[in-house]
Specification:
With about 250 residues, this protein is an all-alpha fold. It is globular, with a radius of gyration of 17 Å.
C-alpha cells in the first residue's frame, strides 16, 4: 500500500504556498461577488466574456508562476529524467478517466438526462474556468485563444492553486489526508460559482463531475513526486475536451 501511496518528499516553500492560498480565496470567493457589478452588460456577449476568461487565466498564471517559479523550475530536471514513467502514467490515467466519464454519461443519459447536461462540462477538469464562464463557452466563444488558454495555461493554474498549495504539503506528512484536504479546497471555487450564478445546481454538478479527475491527478502527483506529471495529465485531458467541444459545437 505504501508503494502505491508513498509519502511525498517535495513541496513548495511555505511562504509561496501562503501567497497562493490568499490569492485563491480572492479569486474564488471575493472576486465572483464583484463581477456582477463591474462586468454588467457583458454576460450576453460570448466573445467578450471569453476574453475576460482568458485574461483572468493569464493573470493567474502570472501570479502562480511568480510565486512558484523555483518549485516548478526545480521539478523540470527530475521530470526530464523520468519522462518515460510520467508519459506512461499520464496515458494510462487519461484513458481511465475518459472511460470513466463515458460510463458516467451513459448512465446519466438513461436515468438523469438533466444532470447529464450539467456534468458534460466536467469532461474538462478546469476548476477555475466557471468563475465567469464555463470552459465550453470560453472555447466556443474564442476557439483559438480559448483552446490555447485551456490546454496550455489552465493546467498550471489548477496544479498551482490546488495540488501544489494543498495536496503536496499535506501529503508530505500524511498521504491519505491529502486527498481529504483536496476535496475540501476544491469546494472553494464552487462556493464562488454558487454566489455568482445564484444557483447551486451547476457548481455542485461540476464539483462531483471533476472530483474523480482531481483525485486521480493527485495520485499521479503522489506517485511521481513531480508537479509536471499532473500538469501533463491535465493538458492531455483538456486537449481532448476542447476537441470535443469544437467538434460537437456544444456550449453550456
Amino acid at each position: 500500500m505504501k508503494k502505491q501511496f508513498p509519502i511525498m518528499l517535495n513541496s513548495p516553500p511555505k511562504g509561496a504556498t501562503f501567497g497562493v492560498l490568499v490569492w485563491m480565496v480572492f479569486c474564488f470567493v471575493l472576486l465572483p461577488t464583484w463581477t456582477v457589478f463591474f462586468m454588467y452588460g457583458l454576460w450576453d456577449d460570448l466573445t467578450a466574456m471569453s476574453w475576460c476568461e482568458i485574461v483572468f487565466n493569464g493573470a493567474n498564471i502570472f501570479i502562480i508562476g511568480f510565486l512558484y517559479k523555483d518549485y516548478f523550475g526545480e521539478s523540470v530536471f527530475e521530470a526530464k529524467l523520468m519522462w518515460r514513467e510520467i508519459a506512461k502514467m499520464v496515458a494510462v490515467c487519461a484513458a481511465v478517466i475518459v472511460g470513466l466519464y463515458l460510463c458516467i454519461f451513459e448512465i446519466l443519459s438513461l436515468f438523469a438526462p438533466d444532470w447529464l447536461v450539467l456534468m458534460w462540462e466536467g469532461m474538462i477538469p478546469i476548476s477555475v474556468s466557471d468563475i465567469y464562464l464555463t470552459a465550453g463557452a470560453t472555447v466556443y466563444g474564442n476557439p483559438l485563444f480559448g483552446s490555447l488558454c485551456m490546454v496550455l495555461v489552465a493546467p498550471f493554474i489548477t496544479c498551482g492553486f490546488f495540488y501544489a498549495s494543498t495536496f503536496a504539503p499535506v501529503c508530505c506528512n500524511h498521504p491519505w489526508l491529502g486527498y481529504g484536504a483536496m476535496a475540501l479546497v476544491l469546494a472553494i471555487p464552487r462556493v464562488g460559482g454558487a454566489l455568482l450564478y445564484d444557483n447551486a445546481a451547476m457548481p455542485v454538478a461540476l464539483y462531483f463531475a471533476q472530483l474523480p479527475v482531481h483525485m486521480i491527478s493527485c495520485w499521479v502527483y503522489q506517485k511521481t513526486d513531480n508537479v509536471w506529471a499532473p500538469i501533463a495529465l491535465h493538458m492531455l485531458l483538456n486537449l481532448i475536451g476542447c476537441a470535443l467541444i469544437l467538434v460537437t459545437g456544444y456550449v453550456l
